[in-house]
Every structure is written in C-alpha cells, then in structure tokens.
Amino acid sequence: MSQQLSSQTPSNQDRIVGKHVFGNLYDIDDKLLMDKDLLEGLVLEAVKIAKMNLVEIKSWSFGGKKGGVSVIALVEESHIALHTWNEYKYATLDVYTCGVDSNPQAAFEFIVSNLKPKRHQMFFADRSSE
Amino acid sequence: MSQQLSSQTPSNQDRIVGKHVFGNLYDIDDKLLMDKDLLEGLVLEAVKIAKMNLVEIKSWSFGGKKGGVSVIALVEESHIALHTWNEYKYATLDVYTCGVDSNPQAAFEFIVSNLKPKRHQMFFADRSSE
Question: Where is the chain membrane-spanning (chains A, B)?
Fold first, then answer.
C-alpha cells in the first residue's frame, strides 16, 4: 500500500525540485537602481531568505541610456538574476531555486519590498525534473 | 498623424525590449551533461546566435547525486543560464536577451539541437519595460 502511494506521489528525493519565480518591476526610484552595492546586498540577503547556498555572486554596472546594474548569484544549483535600467526606472528579477525547502517567493518579495516598484508582476515556473 | 501613430505604438527606442525564452530539457545523454567545456562552448555559440554581446561567462561543476554543471553568461544586459543534473539526465535553460533584434529562441533551439533531449518544453516571457 505504501509502495503504491509512493509510486503515485514520487518522493522529492528522487527528482530535482526546481522553483522559478520571476517578474518585471516598474517605476522604481532610479537612484536605487544605480547603486550596485545596495543591489548586491539585497541579492545576498535574498539568497539567505530563499534558503539557498551561495556559490558566487557578481555584479556589473553599465553606462549609457540603456545602462544600469546586473547582479547574478549562482546558488546550488540555480540562480538569482537582477537587472536594472535606471533611466527607465525599470528592473527584472528572477529567483530560481532548487530543493523542496527553498522559498524563492519570499526572496522575490523581499527584493520587491526594498525596491518599492509602483507596479510589478510575479510569475511562477516549475523547473522540476520528471 | 505620424505622431498619433507613434503614441499608439511606442518606438522600441523608448523602452527596454526584453525577451526571455526558457524551458526544461528531459532525458539527455548524461555524458553530455557532465562535460563542462562542451556546455560552455554551446552557451558561447548561443550568445552569437542570439545576437547578444557577451560580458562574461563562467561555469561550475558540482559533485554528488544532485550535482552537474552550471553555465551562466552575462550579456548586455541580460543572461543565459544552463543548469544540468547528469544523474537525472535533466537540464534547464534560460535565454534572456535585450534588444528588438536579439533572437533568444534561435539560441534556445541551438542548444536543444545539440543536447538532443527526448522531450522538452519552451516558454516565452516578455521582460520589456512599459
């Protein structure tokens, strides 16, 4: 009986559980979106909130009208990516985590609550193996 | 008249055009999914096919049952992320590009055609500013 239940509901031990929360963040204070250190700090904190293990984090600044900041954190074995465009007061955020106990939505909401976009969207994609 | 049309259909010069193609790739030859150099080479070629400008590419190998390879390319100003789990013959792929002329779908399909998953999904998310 338990074996039958097990085959109907595969154990999370037997597959990769991938959770990807992503969205677009509109109308943000442009000064925040130029502050590479602040943005990297938010992503670092988000890694903890999502219950992920950080492997490496890196950030870059880009000049020009369509410039801004990119922060990418590699975690085991997925990523957080935050891209900003200060002239457009715009940012996009992807929080992709692995593991049944990870919480990408909490990490996404943490960054949103700090950047305070006037509008934003949040979507979920299942990145699990079969 | 042209001004009116312009306000109805905003010029792509006036906003960030972000295109994100992503999906899960099932049942891949596990030897391919352990070959960090091969996977990094595929992502580098995909950057060109998508008509993106590479800023930096990096790859990592992870051991253990849930290990594999991660390759992340930062491009101006978005990313390609390929994560693999060889024990599960599984990979996920995100090709997120900026610019009206970029072609993330061609890059996605290039990597799929090389990894030859028995099944895969492909989704599109609009990451453009308003």
Answer: none
